[in-house]
Amino acid sequence: MRTTHRTLNLGILAHVDAGKTSLTERLLYEAGAIDAIGSVDAGSTHTDSLDLERRRGITIKSAVVNFRLGGGGSAVSVNLIDTPGHPDFIAEVERVLGVLDGAVLVVSAVEGVQPQTRVLMRTLKRLGIPTLLFINKADRRGADDARVLREAERRLGVPTVAMGRVTTGLGTSTARVAAFTEDDAPFARGLLDVLTARDDALLAAYVADEASVPYERLHDALVTQTRKGWVHPVYVGSAITGAGIQELVRGIRELLPAEHPDTEGPVSGRVFKVERGEGGEKIAYARLFSGRLAVRERVAVGTATAKVTDLAVFDRGALERRASARAGEIATLRGLAAIRIGDVIGTPPVGRPYDHVFAPPSLETVVVPADPADLGALHLALTRLAEQDPLIGLRQDPDGRELSVSLYGEVQKEVLAASLAEQHLAVDFRRTTPICVERVTGTGAAHEVLGEEGNPFRATVGLRVEPGPVGGGVAFRLAVELGSLPLAYVRAVEETVHATLEQGVYGWRVPDCVVTMTHSGFCSITSTAGAFRGLTPLVLMAALRRAGTVVHEPMHRFVLEVPQDAYAQVALALARHRALPGTPTARGDAFVVEGHLPADHVHGLERELPELTGGEGVLETSFGHYRVTNRPRARARTDHNPLHREEYLLHAHRRM
Predict the structure, then answer these.
(1) Spatial separation of the C-alpha atoms in residues 439 and 433, rounded to whole Å
(2) Pick from 222, 224, 223, 244: which is nearest to 235 by CA?
(3) Which phi and psi (to 5°) does residue 126 adopt?
(4) Which domains does the chain have, with CATH numbers?
(5) Is residue 416 packed enough to be buried (19+ CB in 10 Å), middle (13-18) or exposed (0-12)?
(6) Which pLDDT band holds residue 616 (cuts at 50, 70, 90)?
(7) pTM for the whole thing?
(8) Is 90 exceeded by the pLDDT of residue 478?
(9) Residue 263: which H helix or E strand, with range?
């Protein structure tokens, strides 16, 4: 059975300051979900609910609102998810992508296509998420919708179709927008040019007689290709004044894939956000793809089951407590104590794999409490923040004296400090450093035999380590006779191998290698899975040390556009920051140079660029690759150091 109304889970995405939160407010107002439009500057928006978001005027956490578009049988229930625009919070965007049916990518009519715009469009394209573009801020001085449209076609690398234009008042509060109609011959020809690239039947009709192709057929082809993510209609207007918003709303209703979800199928959902309630309990935000989920119902969560104790659904601008939630809706769930971001509820959604689409953080810093007595409270606060953002990557040394977190950039550090201050925790940060990796350079093997002197574990384990293909991850293989070791012990070894390789010889994660189990043995009476878990790190690190590893540092790919007369000074700055630039090319009165830059130098270059270029330099960066570093950096270990046998065995003896 399908619902009587269509639902659309819609994401609003943009580079920071393009106006996506203002657009969210305008859409809510136009749909009648709110009576007054909030202001980002005044801190009164409905989706930026955190005090920190209101103070800084930026979105930090994704937020959900619901509203209806249209009425009767054509009504669409929209779950709109407002996402952060600053690249330091890209992980928050990543988690939302897996629950979207469609998206609106907002571009400023003044600043145009910015670095984050390109990153987001590439990802939306790769995931096949149907996307409309909205050129916002047509009312601002310096706005030029025609220029930005040309820029979008060139820099985003996707087929676009302009659905309207600013007719009067461009760059002023009186800007007016007119939608193109079937009577606009250039619009119809533009549609034909774009749509025939993927529609052979339409192309044949066009070649036979352009005049014989009715507009209704063009519109149907536009709907089909937009919903498949093949073409991207472009709207223009102003979220502040409301110009062009009705045209965008019509595009959302007609062109994006709102469906009648299956409410009678098996329960299937995914968690994309976790936060804590006032009592400290977890609240999970989940999109339901099929079925119904009721309060007090036990549901599969990963490999376990849990009971939903409370449930609320986003509906028409409010969060309403309900007895159940159904397919197509976004609900908040309580009672799932072990829930994590990315967890599947019920059965896995068909065709909706959860995968990391953006590079993980490439920086980290040590967080130090201003008052040493607050170390325990700081650890608890960071642990809870890591639940809401798993990529924080909280690390603690074995003695519990030092806490470090992963970062995308310096703004994230400032926000983290402000979040902790709200919990009455004053902190300082040590210097930001890159998160390196270790790559295996040769082949090494080691083994320990049950009963031999020096092996206190009731287990035999032998492992061989060798390099694997870049991007292939850690592969675990068996070279022992299948069935010679109970499956539980094999799993214990495999799981411990993956956990141990989070810290190699120099303390960095070891990716892309092959680990083969070459020896095994056990005692049916005294051996345990714990014995295999205890012995495996010793054997693995001995093999890894014999194989050898080399430290690689993260490098960011950059594209830099600067005035030609400023390039000499910029080139010196690039050298100071250990950049590897290519040959600059002329673009008008500017130079464009591409290259690679160490991750921990990106912020420094960003900070210097305005002064070096008179504010005209534009820097776009994204993670590129890992490069061998000439000065191997060692990282403090957070385990009990299986590289030092006596120290490790002393700790193991205490545990046993």
Answers:
(1) 19
(2) 244
(3) -65, -35
(4) 6-255 (3.40.50.300), 268-346 (2.40.30.10), 363-434 (3.30.70.870), 438-550 (3.30.230.10), 554-628 (3.30.70.240)
(5) buried
(6) confident
(7) 0.74
(8) yes
(9) none
